């Protein structure tokens, strides 16, 4: 019998700017699709306000799925993180998601 309950949990360990350490859990497929859609920037030459709002929402969705149940708001992300940090996080996050997808359990 194939047992879906035997998967080994993997976490994306991250230290936030406020010093809080969180272990981000792998996203469910529905959330992963939403994060991927939100993090797509349509025009590489210029970020619109909508693009920035979507990037912030993508980060909030990813950050808030953590083992510690630590919650962060869109306002907090917007206040504390710049665009380079957000894009860098999303790159590392998707790289991690791809890596766990390719690992054996």
Describe it for me?
The chain is mainly alpha-helical and 105 residues long. It has one domain (25-102). It contains four helices and two strands, in the order ββαααα. It has helices at residues 29-39, 49-63, 74-80, 83-102, and strands spanning 12-15, 21-24. Strands 1-2 form a two-stranded antiparallel ribbon. A hairpin with a 5-residue loop joins strand 1 (12-15) and strand 2 (21-24). Helix 1 (29-39) runs antiparallel to helix 2 and helix 2 (49-63) packs across helix 4. The radius of gyration is 15 Å and the shape is globular. The mean pLDDT is 90.
Throw out a few tags for this protein.
single chain, 105 residues, mainly alpha, two-stranded antiparallel sheet, globular
Question: How many strands appear in the DSSP assignment?
Answer: 2
Number of helices: 4
* Assembly status: single chain
Q: Which consecutive residue ranges, at least 5 long each, have pLDDT under 50?
A: none
Averaged pLDDT: 90
> Fraction of residues in helices?
40-55%
Instruction: Give me the Rg, rounded.
Output: 15 Å
Largest sheet: 2 strands, antiparallel
- What global shape is seen? globular
Alpha-carbon distance between the two ends: 16 Å
State the gist of this model.
By secondary structure, this protein is mostly helical. It is built from 4 helices and 2 strands. It has one domain (25-102).
Question: Topology, pairings included?
Answer:
Layout: E1 12-15, E2 21-24, H1 29-39, H2 49-63, H3 74-80, H4 83-102
Antiparallel strand pairs: 1-2
């Amino acid at each position: 019998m194939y047992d879906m309950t035997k998967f080994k949990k993997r976490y994306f360990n991250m230290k936030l700017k406020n010093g809080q350490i969180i272990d981000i859990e792998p996203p469910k497929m529905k959330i992963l699709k939403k994060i991927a859609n939100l993090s797509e920037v349509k025009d590489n030459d210029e970020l619109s306000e909508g693009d920035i709002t979507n990037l912030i929402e993508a980060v909030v969705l990813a950050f808030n799925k953590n083992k510690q149940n630590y919650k962060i708001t869109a306002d907090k992300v917007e206040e504390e993180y710049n665009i380079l940090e957000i894009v860098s996080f999303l790159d590392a996050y998707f790289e991690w998601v791809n890596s766990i997808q390719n690992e054996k359990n």
